[in-house]
Write a structure and sequence with these properties.
This protein is mainly beta. The chain contains one helix and 21 strands. The longest helix is centred in the N-terminal third of the chain and has 23 residues. One of its GO terms (cellular component) is neuron projection membrane.
Length: about 260
Amino acid sequence: MLPSNVLFIQYCTGGIMLREPRTIALDVSVSSNIIMTATTEESDAPQPYFDFDVPRNLTVTVGQTGFLHCRVERLGDQDVAWIRQRDLHILTMGASTYTSDQRFQVIRPEGSVNWTLQIKYPQTRDSGVYECQINTEPKMSLSYVLNVIELHARIQGPSDIFVKSGSEITMVCVIQQGPHELGTVFWYKGSTLVEPLDQENDIHSGDRGRITIETDWTDALTSRLKIKRAVQSDTGNYTCVPTMARPASVCAHVISGKLWLT
């Protein structure tokens, strides 16, 4: 008896049946080696992995565009998706967007390892966990936390200011919380933008330097509106309008004659 793992192929030459077990047995052995090699090569294929050296906890203010950066190395033919964890909604897959909310978009330059989720005009309801996911088996994912905070401006002092005609009015607007990217501050009197009167081509040269605005950042974003030599026409509602926070208002009253305070 020949071993069971030896295969025979019979073929005819001049009417004679020939058998060559050794040659065929060798071929089977080579085929097995090929299969084993292919399996080994498949298991040794490079696997994608995340670059953990990126910020994964982002704080932005309402309306300030947020960016969540996901770096995936050795992606190969796999795809990257962004998923909102609270409802498991797939926001993007590859370069495509899978939500009707056009505020969400994936940014990935050609050939880049960066898959950045952009959130435009974020609201507090957008706060939560987002996952960057690779569609391997099993799935690979990395979590990110987005915090959207609503800032409020505050004008120091009472909500009504009373000053005597000819005096100086100083209004100080402060924003104390949030990330450093707080934008800038605009001042309005009613619905009219207040602009400093410090240009040489002002209509009334005597008004030059009468109205100034100073904005600086120390521990908070602070904007100071100063009106020198106040006149009755300066009476009105003044509003501090930051680009990244809710506004605050104060009413200034310029009194002619004697000022009575109670």
